[in-house]
Amino acid sequence: MIDDPRARTAVRQAVSVSVATGLYGVSFGALAVAAGLSLPQTIALSALMFSGGSQFAFIGVLGAGGTPLAAVATAGLLGARNALYGVRVAPLLGATGWRRPLAAHLTIDESTAVGTAQPTPLANRAGFWWTGIGVFVAWNACTVAGAVLGDALGDPRRYGLDAAAPAAFLALVWPRLAGRTAQLTALAAVVVALGLTPITPPGVGVLAAALVAVVIGWTRPQTPRQQAAADLREVS
Amino acid sequence: MSTGTMTWLALLAASGVVFALKLVGHLVPEHWLADPRVARTASLVTVALLAALVAVQTLTSGYHVVLDARLPALVVAAVALALRAPFIVVVIAAAATAAGLRALG
């Protein structure tokens, strides 16, 4: 079916990434229900938003009692990196017509990472599409499984699900913490978010932390080599 | 408006925003986002949001900063990550730690 050996390698990578990511869809489904979303809402979120970080943030802010507006803003800010991914993968894909919005919807950490890591144009495209579609199928199927499971479990605190959510965020931020600037930003974000907790509505401290990152990112000088290293980490 | 309706509206709005951002990346000319500060800032915003969410979800309850079973659970998650455990193992280890500590009282 696929003759090109390098495209075959890309497809193999796509399948393993899809399976691994799908498993983490189980935890998303369970946590979304624990945060108070209904089963249809949980399923709709995975299908329509389809960006893990934004989805976890959305249910995190709502679950903590934050306003819907704060949940939308946090999910949107976390989705901003997908715009940069789109800039990178669009020239590789050369998608036109209805394939373009489809490619956009499938533009996430995993599809960008696998797609851009391939050595030939054919393998780039195979890597992106197979990972995007593979993760979409696995992520949504596992979200349903997790939501049904979470619904059956009852009180989420008994199973430590309230601790599973921050652990999921820690796992998402962990690979991005290499480098002084990132570490400094993370520390400042923690201080700001906790400092604002007693005096602002839930969710506002997290948004203020994003502003800190904008200030640091825009003002702190960085050499081109450091930037290249940061870009590589971003999609690895 | 009921909470359920509000959640649906927020869900659709947030999904629309996230999709629009993805589409923008596919439609704008490449050089528009070529300034390295744009890429760096976007990457740091991701770090800041995730770090802030870790802190808020581990150490707060409503308007209060609290210490409970979630903190040791997060430490266990960090150890698992340092040992390069897969995502699902990290999450389960944290949940099991919190559940275990609460069961012990």
Fold and architecture overview:
Helix content of chain A is 78%, strand content 0%. With 236 residues, chain A is mainly α. The two termini of chain A are 28 Å apart. The model of chain A has no long low-confidence stretch (mean pLDDT 88). Chain B has helices at residues 3-27, 36-59, 70-82, 87-104, and strands spanning 60-61, 64-65. Chain B is built from four helices and two strands; from the N terminus they run H-H-E-E-H-H. With 105 residues, chain B is mainly α. The longest helix of chain B is centred in the N-terminal third of the chain and has 25 residues, at 3-27. The N and C termini of chain B lie far apart (40 Å). Chain B is extended and about 60 Å long. The mean pLDDT of chain B is 90. Chain B has a domain at 1-34. Classes of the chains: A mainly alpha (236), B mainly alpha (105). Chains A and B meet through helix 1, helix 2, helix 3, helix 4 and helix 5 of A and helix 1, helix 2, strand 2, helix 3 and helix 4 of B.
Order of helices and strands of chain A: HHHHHHHHHHH
Question: For the largest beta sheet of chain B, what order do the strands appear in spatially?
Answer: 1-2
Shape of chain A: globular
Low-confidence stretches of chain B: none
CA-based gyration radius of chain A: 19 Å
Q: How much of the residues of chain A is beta strand, in percent?
A: under 5%
The CA-CA distance between the termini of chain A, in Å, is 28 Å
Strand content of chain B: under 5%
Output the number of helix runs of chain A. 11
Percent helix range of chain A? over 70%
Q: Which pair of chains forms the biggest interface, and how many residues does each contribute?
A: A-B, 104 and 76 residues
Average of per-residue pLDDT values of chain A? 88
Strand/helix succession of chain B: HHEEHH
Structural class of chain B: mainly alpha
How would you name the oligomeric state of the polypeptide chains in this document? heterodimer
Distance between the termini of chain B: 40 Å
